[in-house]
Task: structure prediction
Amino acid sequence: MPSPLGQQDDERLQIQKCQEGDTEALGWLRNKLHPALVGILVARGASATETEDLLADLWGDCVARSDDRPSLLEKFSGKCPLRNWLATVATRRWIDWKRKSVNRREAASHRADDPDEDIFERMPAAASSATEGGLIDLLRDSLQAAFDQCSAADLLMLRLVYLQRLSQREVCRMWGWNEAKVSRRLSDAMERIEIETLRRLRQKDPWLQLTWEDFVDMCQTHQIGFL
Result:
């Protein structure tokens, strides 16, 4: 059985080949990652049809084209697992597609309600380019809103334990509490952050059904954090 380091080397080699236009390398990556990406997108709220369409386009974009169109993988920095990065790109594309679908339906409804509207006003506006920043901002804003709901004492305790790496025993001495109370306070604070973050996220994008594990994974992929 190949070692994890050997698997990483194989993946890096196939990524490089894809960037050079090798379709066999694309097949290698697809066979390895496609089932996991399907599961992630469906879990995040995409339908089976949406998932297959999104991933078909995604894999197609991973190979350099003869018309000098670069591989999508040129943007991959290698700072996180490729699966995580591709899942984030696919999720961002899916959210962008859902938003545009809603806008088109609203525009069609408006035209039906106003048959005398000027023909030039009926022409669709140029589609904005889908940027990864939109999804990152969504994650960051939702997390920031959750932290804003925390008390100053909770934020200080979280920072001391998770950033400064103080032990709970040291925090107990600072607060004059027992370890059970400190542990409970930390757990309660983290639970409130989780609930509020996901609530804000679903409020901003009802289609996106991230679990907390999904959210943390995507934040780690893009190094998003506040503590």
Remarks:
- Residues 131-221 form a domain with the Arc Repressor Mutant, subunit A fold (CATH 1.10.10).
